[in-house]
Amino acid sequence: MKTREQIKQMLVDTLMEVVTTVFSTVPTINEKMEKGEFDAGCIFAFIGLVGNLQGNIVVSGSEKSASAAVSKMLNCKSDISQQDVFDGMGEFTNVLAGGLKKKASSAGYGFNFSLPTVIYGESGFKVVNLGKMEVIKLNVYCADFELNLRLSFFI
Fold first, then answer.
1. How far apart are CA 115 and CA 135, in angstroms?
2. CATH code: domain of residue 124
3. Among the listed residues 5, 14, 27, 20, the one whose alpha carbon sits nearest the alpha carbon of residue 105
4. FRET pair for 61, CA 20 to 30 Å: which of 32, 43, 52, 141?
5. Could you tell me which of 155, 125, 108, 142 has the C-alpha nearest to residue 58?
6. For residue 45, is pLDDT > 90?
7. What is 23-61 written as a DSSP string?
8. 5-13 LR contacts (CB < 8 Å, sep 24+)
9. For residues 103 and 9, is the Cβ–Cβ distance under 8 A?
10. Which residues on adjacent β-strands are paired with residue 118?
11. What is the 3-state secondary structure (H, E, C) of 103-137?
């Protein structure tokens, strides 16, 4: 199996496990093909990767979707604060990076990762990678929300 496909499969498997555990729901995961700028009003959580696998993981969603996801994660029925949404998106990305690290390490692609950084943008912007990195983009659909995942890497 080619490296990109192997890493993509590890990412999909990790995403399925983490979403099922954290949100108590089984997601639909599709590869995202379209390119372009992110929508305004999105929340982004970034984690940098260093080691045999280098790059970053970005999880994003609209403010509404991120709020619904974090409410589900915290098992809250009422409105949650914007700060709780930011913290929850960062924590979800952290758990995802930890799960991927476990799978990648056993396949020889060990890495360490940074603390999450969360960015909220009221106007659209674009994530751009420097150099020639592989990029895997996935959409994660659950009953109450949709999140986008982007893994940019090189080995």
1. 21
2. 3.40.1550.10
3. 14
4. 52
5. 125
6. yes
7. HSSPPEEEE----SPPPTTEEEEEEEEEESSEEEEEEEE
8. 6/107, 7/53, 7/104, 7/109, 7/134, 7/136, 7/151, 7/153, 8/136, 10/100, 10/103, 10/104, 10/107, 11/100, 11/136, 11/138, 11/149, 11/151, 12/138, 13/103
9. no
10. 45
11. HHHHCCCCEEECCCEEEEECCCCCCCCCCCCEEEE
Residue with tokens 């498997």, as numbered in its chain: 13
The structure tokens listed for 128 are 């751009």
Across the range 129-140, mean pLDDT stands at 86
Domain extent at residue 144? 3-154
Quick one: which of 112, 109, 85, 107 has its CA closest to 97? Answer: 112
Q: Are 80 and 68 in contact (CB under 8 A)?
A: no
pLDDT digits (tens, 9 = 90+) for 56-84: 999 999 999 999 999 999 998 778 999 99
- Could you tell me the two tokens for 126? 């674009």
Contact 62, 41 (CB under 8 A): yes
User: Is the pLDDT assigned to residue 104 strictly greater than 90?
Assistant: yes
Give the pairing of strands 117-121 and 134-141: unpaired
Domain count along the chain: 1
Tokens 């790059």 label which residue?
55
